[in-house]
Amino acid sequence: MSQPLTADTTSFKSGRTIVALMLREMSSTYGKSSLGYLWALAEPVGGIAFLSIVFALALRSPSLGDSFPLYYSTGLLPLSLFREVSSKTAVAIRYSKPLLGYPRVTYIDAIIARALLNGLTGAMIGAVLIGGMVILNPSFVFLNIPEMALAYTMALGLALGFGTLNCFLFWKFTFWQQIWGILMRPLFLISGVLFNFEDLPKVAQDILWYNPIVHVIGQMRMGVYATYEPTYISYIYIFAIILATLSAGLILLTRYNQDIMYN
Questions:
Q1: N or C: which end of the chain has fewer CB within 10 A?
Q2: Which tens digit of pLDDT belongs to each residue from 201-258?
Q3: How far apart are CA 205 and CA 189, in angstroms?
Q4: How far apart are CA 94 and CA 84, in angstroms?
Q5: What is the pTM (predicted TM-score) of this model?
């Protein structure tokens, strides 16, 4: 006689499915050795080194602290996390479509697996880079781990929300993926990676405040620089965007799940 399914049993099976999907992506994306993760680490290291060298030649010191690599890492790492997780989540259903025919694999499992794996990878890279900088030069920084964790939570939440919504939009409107790619390109320049939000003219602040990544980077720098206290960060604004995009994405995917599966 079969055992009735309980909430605990269902959660356990869903958890096993998510772990299996994560292992599958780890194998396909990073390979079966640690070299794949070394390449994932090399990309942000190269970007931070390039920015540090270029701006060190033009400026005496960054806007905060005295370390160019640390300053630019506090902007580049959260932005990279958002871009990577949102892009991978947006194609999660397409990537795992051959497996979604199995009754125990759902589109939510596929989305969670991709977001969780790439989010953990981004957090690991950030911990290695920033931790390494602090070890090499511990005198100029005091890390506030809860504040930094909040910044990563904000970035991951935004990435999951926009990625889930784009799961539907990429399928429904074939042109939207190209438009989204175009919209992502200027984020590096308008999100505060290269500057502090307070250093901008008032008219620029009034416009760029609506870019949620500006708030994430401000939160990240508040966790790294003890004397930096940005007053422009709005947690209500960020979590309202997360809730709106995630809810809209899940509602649309639930409504059109069968159409997406068989088209």
A1: N
A2: 999 999 999 999 999 999 999 998 888 899 999 999 999 999 999 999 999 999 988 7
A3: 14
A4: 16
A5: 0.86
Give Cα separations from 164 to 22, 35, 109, 154 (angstroms): 17, 30, 12, 15
106 and 46 Cβ atoms separated by less than 8 Å? no
Q: Among residues of the chain, what percentage have pLDDT more than 70?
A: 80
One-character DSSP codes across the chain: -PPPP-HHHHHHHHHHHHHHHHHHHHHHHH-SSTHHHHHHHHHHHHHHHHHHHHHHHH-SS-SSSS-HHHHHHHHHHHHHHHHHHHHHHHTHHHHHGGGTTSTT--HHHHHHHHHHHHHHHHHHHHHHHHHHHHHH-GGG----HHHHHHHHHHHHHHHHHHHHHHHHHHHH-TTHHHHHHHHHTTHHHHTTSSS-GGGS-HHHHHHHTT-HHHHHHHHHHHHH-TT---S---HHHHHHHHHHHHHHHHHHHHHHHHHHHT-
* Cα–Cα nearest to 78, from 237, 192, 177, 241: 192
Task: Name the token pair of 195.
Answer: 């500057």
pLDDT digits (tens, 9 = 90+) for 81-99: 999 999 999 988 887 777 7
